[in-house]
Every structure is written in C-alpha cells, then in structure tokens.
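Database export, one record per block. Field names are fixed; values are copied verbatim from the stored entry.
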Amino acid sequence: MVVNKSKAAFRTIAEVAEDLGVATHVLRFWETKFPQIKPMKRNGGRRYYRPDDVEIVRTIRDYLYDKRYTIEGVQKLFKEKGVKALIGEEIQKDFFQAVLPPERLDENSRAFISALQNQLKEMKEELTSALARASK
C-alpha cells in the first residue's frame, strides 16, 4: 500500500516497486545495469529512492515493458541521448532547495542575525587562540 507522500519525498524500494508494478528484485537488478539509478542506502542497506531515481526507473520500465526495448537498447539510449533528454531538464535538481522565495527580514531580525554572527566570530577567535596556546 503506497502512502500519499509529497512528490519530493524519498520512497522505499517496496513503495517504488508497488507504484511501478514491478518486483523489488527487478529494481535491484536494474540498479546493477543502470548506473543512473542511485538510491540512498541507509543502515542495513535499506534503499531510499529520490524523486529523480523514481523517474529514471519509471522511464526504464516504460522502455522495457511498453516500448519493448532490451536492456542493452535502453542503456544505449541513455548513453547516446542522456538522462536529461529522456526524462526532462528537471532531473537531478536539488529537492532540498527552498520552494518558496526567501522571506524578507525586518530590521529586528537583521540586527539579531548580525549580533549572532559577531558572537560566532568572537567565539572562533577565542577557540583559535586557545588551540594555539594548547599546542605550545
């Protein structure tokens, strides 16, 4: 059962497999054949597919199952045309970038941030000085 997640959310291999109608072992096999598929791996090797990975896998599935290409044929397409040409220009964009425009800061916020920056600079200088004294 696929849970409703945001389009930018990472998905497990089971969620991707169910969504695309393929088995999980097929996705793992495709990872060995297509270096463009690079899911994050966490503890115990658990895979988390980024939105770009899902789009790449969906494209591979479409070429293999719907358009009846061979694996070698899809590999050749990716090599000749590139992933961006087959999937679109949005591929590999940073999904952690802000979607909303940055907020405008009022004077109080600017002053607060400036004071924090000054404190951090002073702390850095103190730590650098202490480190220099300790290494003598």
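Remark 1: The domain at 11-87 is CATH 1.10.1660.10 (Multidrug-efflux Transporter Regulator; Chain: A; Domain 2).
Remark 2: The two ends are 63 Å apart (CA to CA).
End of record.
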